[in-house]
Amino acid sequence: MSRSSKSHDGPANPSRRGLLKAGIAGAGLVAGAGLARAAGGDPANLPPNVADWSRYLGPGVDAAPYGMPSEHEAQVVRRSVEWLTASRESSINFTPLHELDGIITPNGLCFERHHGGVAEMNPTDYRLMINGLVDKPLIFTLEDLKRFPRVNRLYFLECAANSGMEWRGAQLNGCQFTHGMVHCVMYTGVPLKYLLEEAGLKTNAKWIMPEGGDAAGMNRSVPIEKALDDCIVAFKMNGEALRPEQGYPARLVVPGWEGNMWVKWLRRIEVGDMPWHAREETSKYTDLLEGGKARRFTWVMDAKSVITSPSPQAPILHAKGATVLTGLAWSGNGRITRVDVTLDGGKNWHEARIDGPSLPKALHRFYFEFDWDGSELLLQSRAHDETGYVQPTKDALRAVRGTNSIYHNNGIQTWYVKADGGVENVEIS
Amino acid sequence: MSRFLKVAALSVGAALALSQPLQAGSLGLGTPATPEEIAGWDIDVRPDGAGLPEGRGTVAEGEAIFSEQCAVCHGDFGEGAGRWPVLAGGQDTLTSEAPVKTIGSYWPYLSTVYDYIHRAMPYGNAQSLSADETYAVVAYLLYLNDIVDDEEFELSKENFASIRLPNEDGFIDDGRPDTPLASEAPPCMSECKAEVKITKRARIIDVTPEDDGEVSGMAVD
Fold first, then answer.
1. Keywords in UniProt for this one (chain A) (predicted)?
2. Of the candidates B218, B123, B84, the residue with the CA atom closest to the CA atom of residue A79
3. Nearest by CB to B172, which of A170, A293, A428?
4. Distance (Å) from the alpha carbon of A239 to chain B's nearest alpha carbon
5. Is the full-model pTM beyond 0.95?
6. What ipTM was assigned to the predicted interfaces of this complex?
């Protein structure tokens, strides 16, 4: 093969997806690791040949003032499920968990949930008002907020409806869709406590009502204990300004609690002596139980986990042998202390390996390395948190709550790995 | 000790491990909010009526506003067009297979109806309804839900708190954890069950977004 041939002139590049299809068609992944490796690249770029990138200069330093991922990562994007909602402006999309690793979600991939679209706010026109049961109602500019002492905290944000479509059974094929309403970033901001103290809380201050500056005017009631404990008014995520879709220029961070309460484009905080019973804590974010009563103020997100690979969007593409199983675990009640995984649908469990920081109310990354013999598997993961809570099965949750509570589905997920390496979302007995 | 308190205690322990910046009292940041500034933004309404503005509106007035500004999405009678929310009906469905959760069947407080319509509706033109118009639309929604039956009924700041919604008592506090803790039921680790069967498959339902006939986002080279 000529060294000058450009890669696109070379033989068609068989995709891993193509290989998977070949496996499904019966050509078999049992052909051996050598085949998988040989099929996975353009010979012109492989030894002993020397690829173009080893010979010619690449783009210079200013080619991308704000860099983007490699074009080969174009599939790593947020995705939505159009039938879930009536409009694009009050809707949801999903983080591609199956493509990510570690515990930090890249800003551009953090799932979005808006109720009135993205408020496009000019930071010089940003104002945060604090009023109600305070000594001194105040208005802060963004520059004012940046003059308070700051903290840096890593927290997961999970939509209360994450996995909500799965209450009645296995519906969506992919952990992006079943579990992707979660992200985890490092927030920089001001403890809410400092802002409330600046205004001076009256003795009968029992609740606060954060309110968004978007067209939905998102408002929720938060008990004062939580507001004074660990809530943050954040203006940075992963070191840079919040993304517009994440509340630029400032949002509320409510660690461990359902994402709806993390009010974006935060414009006002009212202090009161009783909850407001806003639409988002009566009509929505209340959990209907089987008897017809509904739980309200179900704030905390309980311990949960999911295997992100293998998963329906991340099938096993190699032959049998060394295999890495990985996933995420998190709890709104503190740290994850342990994750168990099973390969045989819960007959036998193994303790997985948590790697990376273990921080309260943050995503945890776990791994379980095993030797796949090519047979069918039923994968599950089971998280434990520091309060002694053990992630329940979906059946255990349904036995208590029925199937119409929409929110707070933290039941154990099952993936069915077939002999060809393909993976499906299933439920098992 | 309640689980909540245990969690609170753990949180304190965790906080000690993190560096907390010093903040000694007021920093003198921010500017006083004037009554006019507060009045412009403080629009919330509580179940006890706190926050309601002066005003009034009748069912008949509300019907006219609703047909013009709301019915295109919510239907002439609050029945919902297409996938847009249903606002009326659904009584006695909360225990059924497919609950219809509306203002009449599910919402606990009328204050929420006023608050939400005024702050967020019509969708795409929020905060455009006057206080009188909002009272009128809320009155019409009471009529559509058979909570008032007189077209001449007038809702106002004065009589607002006297109206109660049917499902006010339908809500209970968070009852979690509602599954056993490890201390109560240590999870099984080996030989936990003899047989496992697949009972449900997402593939059969087939509603996942696809690219070229495959689930979106499949890993590719």
1. Metal-binding, Molybdenum, Oxidoreductase
2. B218
3. A293
4. 18
5. no
6. 0.90
